[in-house]
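User: Hey, my collaborator sent me this sequence without any context and asked if I could get a structure. I don't really work with proteins. Can you help?
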Amino acid sequence: MKRSVVCGGFFVLLAFSVLLFWPPTVFAQAKMVGADVCKGCHEDAYKSYMSSVHGKQYVPGSPFNRDGCEACHGPGSVHVDKGGGKGTIRSFKKTAGGYSGLDEASMRTAACQGCHGDSKKIGFWNMGKHKVEGLSCDSCHASHTTAKNNLKAQDPQICYTCHQQVRSQTNKNSHHPISEGFMKCGSCHTPHGGFGPRSIKADSNNELCYKSTPTREGRSCGSTRRWSRTALTAIPLTAATVTPC
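Assistant: No problem. I've predicted the 3D structure and written it out in structure-token form, which is a compact way to encode the shape of the chain:
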């Protein structure tokens, strides 16, 4: 019985070690093969990549001007030699088995930060709620797209993908004018992390609201600076009549 337990523990430890150390080893062994080799099997993906900002030669520092497909997916020789397959190259496509090894969130984010790491917009990413919850850059962004900011959907729809309760709150009689198009989630919140509560762009609700809209001292903007659906219907909605927070 003890021998079985010891043997079982050994194989569990061995499997864990393989999962822990194998991904870096794959990259250490792999060599660059060039985007033309990738195109041979992934023609549709290559076309979408070339149509995106990442595939433009005129964009300084773009993957096109670095290592092409392999600037994001890593060197592809092992992937090619094995005829494809999960775990032989970094993938940004979630499968039924989820992400693991080369594809885990931290490594996918690291691939993006290889180029975007010096951006001021993501300076607080590592302390942000989205990072803590296991999200990565590709949770919201797609590298093979022509959409604005490479988003999979635009604000606020991209936020509603996860924050469905917030979406329902925007349908209440008293609400911020998001559905009316006068502000977005990103008007007050930063998805890339910050010091404010609930990822707001200030240290408090009041401070955030005071930046653009004067209100009575001693009252919380977070609870008072909202819009009545009735009032919105009665007042002509123009840039002159509405001042977003």
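In plain terms: The longest strand covers residues 174-175. You can pass these tokens on to your collaborator as they are.
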